[in-house]
């Protein structure tokens, strides 16, 4: 049985060009994920997947490990219309066998670290279920609403029993909600190879991470916030 990690870092981001190699804390964003997986010592192989050989050159300037193996995708395979789950369903057989354990880690969750990875494996072995990392929403979801008409600014609530309707706005009465953060998706490889699941969350349990470890870098604003957080964290050391 092998433990194989997969870290995708496509170069074609439209909203935030070259997001995955943007500098954060003195190194490219994707290196945070690769380093976390390496430091965990949980894996036999780590697949770094990109449509850009230039990305490989950049990563190799920061990391030197025989465990990290490069997989080059075509531009079509790395387009924003291709879901990573669907790509893995089609291609996972290239890296894993039925008895292996497979882990996906997105580079957009840089502060997931080796301890989170190890604890996800602990959950996996304890409950015999797939695991995905998640974090709590930073604002109460029951208060959410959408604008249904931009001209009149007509809006509607997300939930029928929203506190905006019931008037029960006490924070202690609100239900806590969580969302995936992309840090770790851990499962038996056969779940993907045999087409048993349609998403990474099917038959899986959540590993809840702290909100500060769950930054999701999707925009330049997100990256700026992550940099500010890093500075504050470094300042506290002194």
Mean pLDDT: 95
Determine the strand fraction and express it as a percent band.
15-25%
- Whole-number radius of gyration? 20 Å
The portion of residues assigned to helices is 25-40%
State the major sheet: 7 strands, mixed
Q: Any low-confidence stretches, pLDDT <50, length ≥5?
A: none
Order of helices and strands: EEEHEHEHEHEEEHEHEH
Number of strands: 11
Based on Cα principal axes, name the global outline: globular
Terminal Cα span: 44 Å
The largest sheet has its strands arranged as 5-4-1-6-10-7-11
Topology at a glance:
Layout: E1 3-8, E2 23-24, E3 27-28, H1 29-40, E4 45-50, H2 53-60, E5 68-72, H3 84-91, E6 101-104, H4 114-127, E7 130-136, E8 145-149, E9 154-157, H5 163-166, E10 178-188, H6 189-193, E11 204-208, H7 220-235
Parallel strand pairs: 1-4, 1-6, 4-5, 7-11
Antiparallel strand pairs: 2-3, 6-10, 7-10, 8-9
Helix pairs in contact: 1-4
Summarize the structure.
With 238 residues, this protein is α/β, with parallel strands linked by helices.
Your description of this structure?
This protein is globular. Helix 1 crosses helix 4. The model has no long low-confidence stretch (mean pLDDT 95). With 238 residues, it is an alpha/beta fold. The chain has seven helices and eleven strands. The termini are far apart. The chain is 28% helix and 24% strand. A seven-stranded mixed β-sheet has the order 5-4-1-6-10-7-11. Strands 2-3 form a two-stranded antiparallel ribbon.
List keywords for this structure.
globular; alpha/beta; 238 residues
